[in-house]
Amino acid sequence: MYRKLTELVAKEQHVCLKVIEFIGFVGCSADRELLQYLLKTAISLNKLTLDTSFGYFDGKLMQWDNPKHTQAARSRGKQLETILPPGVELVSNMEEAAKTARESLDLAFHISNILDTGLDRHTLSVLIALCDLGLNPEALAAVVKELQREPSPLPPPPTAPSSLP
């Protein structure tokens, strides 16, 4: 017989559960019920990540085709902030992805500086994006080396003569 999770009383607290990553959160009543139960029993919880880019259909996890579905699920997830215990961070999958990308770029930039490549953060970001699109990293490296070897083709702009005597 089906009983709502909210009707169940936890016999034990989940002391070791510090991070929950809910993949396929759509914000339906079953999703909210499960999270309410976990938030009550996971007394050491620090972080709750909601991945709203996927949903379950016929028992299969599928990526949303329509961004409106993702936005609606994210909006329903934001409503959970009112029931979060103190000290628990609510993170959406988009925020987590952006944070991971920033950390990865910071690490790549640090390595670039150690290797004295002369690449600035923006150029490095563009190169990483090109690699993500499938460009050959070795070919990109060859182009960068070639560009760094060539002297700048543009002379400095001439200074205007002063009209003061």
TrEMBL record:
Domain FBD: 16-50
GO terms of biological process kind: gamma-tubulin complex localization; microtubule nucleation by interphase microtubule organizing center; mitotic spindle assembly
Top-level division of the source organism's lineage: Eukaryota
One GO CC annotation: spindle
Secretion signal span: none
InterPro entries: FBD, MZT1
Pfam family of the protein (one): MOZART1
Chief localization: cytoplasm
Keyword Cytoplasm: yes
Keywords from the named record: Cytoplasm, Cytoskeleton
Keyword Amino-acid biosynthesis tagged: no
Compartment annotation: Cytoplasm, Cytoskeleton, Microtubule organizing center
The family this protein is said to belong to: Belongs to the MOZART1 family.
Protein name (database record): FBD domain-containing protein
